[in-house]
Amino acid sequence: MQLAGSKELVSGVIKNDLCIGCGACVSLCPYFKSHNGKTVMLFQCSRDKGRCFAYCPRVEVDLDGISQYIYGRPYGTEAMGNYITIRSSRAGAAAGLKTFQTAGTVSSLMMFALGKGVIDSAVVTARDGVKGKPVVVTDASKIPGYAATGYSAAPVASGFNEAMNAGYKKIGIVGTPCQVNAVAQIRTNPMETENFTDPSGMVIGLFCTWALDTGAFLKILRDKTDIASIKRYDIPPPPAGVMKVQSGSGTVDIPLTEIRGAIPGSCSYCHDMTAEFADISVGVFEGREKLNILITRTRRGEELVQAAISAGFLEAETLGDKDISELAAASMNKKKRALARLALENKINSAEGISVLRMNGEILKQLETM
Ligand SMILES: Cc1cc2nc3c(=O)[nH]c(=O)nc-3n(C[C@H](O)[C@H](O)[C@H](O)COP(=O)(O)OP(=O)(O)OC[C@H]3O[C@@H](n4cnc5c(N)ncnc54)[C@H](O)[C@@H]3O)c2cc1C
Ligand code: SF4
Ligand code: SF4
Known about the structure:
With about 375 residues, this protein is an alpha/beta fold. It has helices at about 5-15, 50-55, 65-70, 105-115, 155-165, 175-185, 215-220, 255-260, 300-310, 320-345, 360-370, and strands at about 30-35, 40, 60, 85-90, 120-130, 130-135, 170-175, 200-205, 230-235, 240-245, 250-255, 280-285, 290-295, 315-320, 355-360. The protein has an eight-stranded mixed β-sheet with strand order 6-5-7-8-12-13-4-14, with helices on both faces.
């Protein structure tokens, strides 16, 4: 991987509208901070190579290198990346969940993994109004308190750095694909630190097609609802075309056309819908209320899911071919759109300067014509 420092990160990513505020460059040093979903550099740092640059999922991401590390094979042309099994799922009775975003699969799995010692800590997202903030949890009974989804981009990967700083060795994390890609870079030891061991215990990725810029989202909400008392927001399936925001002052419907105005430009460069470098990926089963889609990708991910099913923490069924094809089509659409944009702007496999992604040229050509 080509390495550089904070200067290049600021000029190449943050000032170039590529930053998604994932937090991977935060909690490493005193210089980078996250504020209202935005990442800012407080002081100059003189190092010419840094973890901030090496962990960023928006610069010099080596898809083959990561894929080799996680799956032992190069990055291919599959729409959803490497996987073992795809199921529909929901939380089982043993999890005792009362609140969740879709069907509680993620919180059940995290609770189960922490309770069984598969992980020694879990990085999940707390919500303060519309702002997301990572927290490191070590008590399984606390996980349900962080169920449900905030749509704002949050600095979740900084929670992974905090858990590493605290000495945890089997860290569990729940994140969107960009956050999972940051964690994947950390796991490959890009700074070639001596005696490095992979600090992850379980990585759960959430499907994602966009997130919202916190500041822009706040502006939209300001005249419409009491932001401080927001309890929940949901996007019902089409044709609803709205986001439902529930607060102490009641529920308001905000047209998705208006909400989309708060999507940061950075999401348009994102090729990954299903968190291809996670152990387990989870999303909404469109059109099937109270069901998730659950993808296992690694042996440890599949083992956790099987153990959770046996213990009654999860109910699951193999997904049918038609539903898998529809998911693959949506995932491939996102991938092709982003790769086309990256290619147009010379931000993939660039011969000069910083590239967002690096991948095998032959695979890129095949993806472009699929
Ligand atoms: C920004 C965003 C966009 C999404 N877009 C899609 C999509 O297009 N299609 C789709 O199928 N699914 C999408 N999802 C995933 C979906 O909303 C649910 O999170 C997923 O189905 C899991 O449901 P669950 O009931 O198992 O989760 P729960 O058991 O309720 O757990 C939710 C988990 O998400 C974590 N979380 C909450 N907010 C954030 C955040 N902002 N960033 C990172 N982690 C967070 C919490 O820590 C919690 O662990 C998106 C999620 C997010 C955060
Ligand atoms: S690591 Fe994340 S927060 Fe930092 S510059 Fe890159 S995208 Fe932005
Ligand atoms: S679309 Fe991509 S970059 Fe944007 S929040 Fe989702 S995973 Fe991150």
